[in-house]
Amino acid sequence: MHPDIAAHIAQFPPTTQVRLKQLHGFICEQMPALTQKIGYGIPTFQKEGKNFIHYAGYSKHIGLYPGAKAISHFSEEFKRRGFKYSKGTVQFALKEELPLNLIAQILNYLNNK
């Protein structure tokens, strides 16, 4: 994990840190060629020097920022599962397990667009 990202995650309560580390590790596992940095003040993964996906922790959820096209593509699935979402982000409640299968689908979509 990039040191700046580790420091960013360390700012959160322990339960939030667990979820953020889980998400970070999952993205690394699924997309090992991505590089990491802090961009826009939040953990960012890049592909070939361009922003690929971001995430951020909040008091009650984790925000995943895959971009507007991905959000539009998966909007029906987000509605079906009851996830809050907007133009460029989807929210995953901290009290629930991360939807890793859905996140894998989003990563695959982004990788193939």
Structure description:
The chain is an alpha+beta fold and 113 residues long. It has a single domain (3-112), classed as Aspartate Aminotransferase, domain 1 (Alpha-Beta Complex), CATH 3.90.1150. The chain contains 4 helices and 5 strands. The chain has helices at residues 3-10, 14-30, 68-81, 100-112; strands at residues 35-39, 42-47, 50-57, 61-65, 90-93. It has a 5-stranded antiparallel β-sheet with strand order 1-2-3-4-5. Strand 1 (35-39) and strand 2 form a beta hairpin. The longest helix has 17 residues, at 14-30.
- β-strand percent reads 15-25%
Helix content: 40-55%
Average residue-wise pLDDT: 95
Distance between the termini: 26 Å
Instruction: Predict the CATH topology.
Output: Aspartate Aminotransferase, domain 1
Largest sheet: 5 strands, antiparallel
Low-confidence stretches: none
Order of helices and strands: HHEEEEHEH
Number of helices: 4
Please give the CATH architecture.
Alpha-Beta Complex
Cα-atom radius of gyration: 13 Å
- Tell me the count of domains: 1
Tell me, briefly, the overall form.
globular
> How many extended strands?
5
CATH class category: Alpha Beta
Widest β-sheet, arrangement of strands = 1-2-3-4-5
Structural class from helices and strands? Answer: alpha+beta
